[in-house]
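Narrative of activities, Objective 1.

The group set out to show that a structural description can be obtained from nothing but a protein's sequence at a throughput compatible with the screening campaign. Below is one input-output pair from the validation batch, recorded exactly as produced.
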Amino acid sequence: MSNTLALTDYPYVLSEMLYRPTAATISRWAVQPDFLADPRMRPGQVYMADRFGYLPDTGDMDLESRTRSEVEILGTANTRQIPKSKIPIILREITGPGGGDPNNPALPGNFRFSIPAMQYQQRLIWDMGYAEPLVQPQFHASVGATTLLQDFRLTTDRFYLNALDSSTNKYNPGSVLDGGTYASGPPKFGVNDLDIILEQLIINRAPTFPDNLYHALISPKMWTHLRQDARFRELVSSSAYYSVPMVMSSQEWLYGPGFMPPADLNYVAQPNIGGFLPYYNQAMPGPSQNGLPGGYVYNQFRIWVTNNIPLKQVQLTYTASTDTTRHPTGSALRTAYPGYFFGQHAVGEIFGGDSQDGIPVKIKRNLNDDYGRYLIVIWQAFMGLSKLNDDFIIVGRTYGD
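Output recorded for this entry:
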């Protein structure tokens, strides 16, 4: 039986400190947003990003339509302008943690620590060197500071996932629309669905990333269903099929400290060597909470698995069901496990306000501390985030077990 203790209940006798489970926070890395920093901006102001387009195909892109006779007058009647649109991004003051009320998620919150209790307990809840009124608080290795940092990471990671999910391009297995019908359910996302999404991104003229691939962030359930497809499993699990291009295999920042490959190995001459080294074979687990994973490459997608994607509810009809207890026949709201497939320039992020000093996120202290008896802190950032191009994102779903 678990026993949840209040934040003020600190051990006075040193006890074992257990591992704290957390979700992966890799969305910013996978999305690679357009950064549009403007330190002059203040919260509430709107950053207007200009998009200049190209002339659309209006049915005149053929030889006959563009050919002019020697007696034809070109004139100035059919003047055209350069297409242009604006993408507004609101700069916001963002703080954490939240108030903790699921019925009112907009409530602001804070962390409050009893300084006398922290001074005598046997665990570093907060480094007291950063608790003085004249010292600028910052993230450090204490339990409280790392908890704040993880709240910031998970929250901003969710910002990106929500921006991707806002795309109007929704895709269910087999191209069935929301509210549609499956002869047998629940449907599972597979390799054929990846082919259709890839085709649509190309039709939408979505640009690839510098690695010449599209990127994807998918839920663990979608990853499981893809691995149940023999074609996907055979190729992705091959030791000769790398998760990163050869030219990038010697860059430590892709893997994190301690996972550099030996410098004297020739990866081009020995393409299978990755299968004998830890963390280079694609058969390794999907999600990563440390470093910057290289993802899994399949069918022109670099795929990351993240366990921070919220589940969704989608109305679908099952004429027949493989499990009528868990997935009844008829029309009902079905639990969807999303995956986001996107090209470059899909999301934009701005910084402003107090971030002009180069620190995008800070810890702030409330000095109403009852004469130095409490430490009350939050994290604060001045930022904005927005989807830049709806056509560059497709939201896929998978269903069932």
